[in-house]
Amino acid sequence: MLHIFKDAKDIWERRELILTLAEADFKKKFVGSFLGIFWMFIQPIITVLIYFFVFQLGFRSQPVSEVPYVLWLIPGIVPWFFFNEAWGGATNCLYEYQHLVKKMVFKVSILPIIKVVSSLFIHLIFIWIMIIVYLLFGVQPSLWWIQIFYYTFCTLFLVLGLSYITASANAFFKDMGQTVQILLQIGMWLAPIMWSETMFPVRFRFVIKLNPVYYLVQGYRDCFITHEGFWEHPQLTVYFWCIVLIIFGIGMNLFKRLKPHFADVL
User: Fold this and answer.
1) Which residues of 240-260 are buried (b: 16+ CB within 10 A; e: fewer)?
2) Contact by Cβ (8 Å): 96, 177
3) Per residue in 120-173, pLDDT tens?
4) In this predicted structure, what is the pLDDT of residue 61?
5) Where are the domains of the chain?
6) How far is residue 96's CA from residue 78's CA, in Å, rounded to a whole number?
7) Which of 103, 115, 231, 252 gives 89 a disulfide partner, CB atoms 3.0 to 4.6 angstroms apart?
8) What is the DSSP letter of 139?
């Protein structure tokens, strides 16, 4: 546990460098692109529209939690877009920045953070888009919306821990990037993003809650729909942070053990 706080302190001391490189990474994604940053939003927006037409207009899905399906869907899918983009990008960060990995003076452990923070910039814009959609539907602003920053931090911490594990493995096993993409495709349907947990009998719902992504998806919906605080779910909150700290600890230890060999295998 102590080494986690030490690593967090080390990251904080390099926050300016991380933000600078994350901003450069964010801009690099759109170099030479005619539509630029809009490409980052076109695919997710089209995805939401497809689900809206398929489930609400095609299958005529009934309102969930007494709100239109689209208002129920967006808070669940927005954190998933962030999770998907950040984990996929951070997994390949050592190959993408191998010129920095081979520099002995560079702090290689900040590379996954750079990719996650770069994705965070886009996520913050999506949060604003989500707020605008709710306002257009006539939903009044609420102080509960502020809680979104807590759940964004939760998502960031979870994806960072996973990224340290997969980025380390990807340096030695080049199939890890494709494996993560497959896991993300499967994970999108395992988490209650397009469907509600109420579809399952009560006695089986605990299985769904074992997935830490459930905590994030439900948390975003608590902010915008049910207006519940994370402190109202103490068992789920404690379970989530125990899992996340374990994943982060494993990730950091693995990264540190394999770091001396990164330059040799890249």
Assistant:
1) beebbeebbbebbbbbeebee
2) no
3) 988 998 898 889 889 988 999 999 999 999 999 999 999 999 999 999 999 998
4) 54
5) 2-265
6) 26
7) 115
8) P
Condensed to tens digits (0 to 9), the pLDDT of residues 27-83 reads: 787 665 656 667 667 777 777 777 777 766 655 555 566 788 888 889 999 999 999
Q: Return all residues near 139 (Cβ < 8 A) that are at least 6 apart.
A: 71, 224
Residue 64, phi then psi, degrees to nearest 5: -110, 135
Helix, strand or coil, per DSSP, at residue 67? strand
Cα-atom radius of gyration of the chain, to the nearest Å? 19
Q: Note the pLDDT tens digit of each residue in 71-106.
A: 888 999 999 999 999 999 999 999 988 888 887 677
Give the type of residue at 20. T
Among residues 167, 12, 21, 3, the alpha carbon closest in space to that of 106 is found at: 21
Which of helix, strand or coil describes residue 263? helix
Q: Which two tokens stand for residue 8?
A: 């967090």
Token readout for 56 is: 């609400």
The whole-number pLDDT of residue 169 equals 93
Q: Look up residue 227 and give its amino acid.
A: H
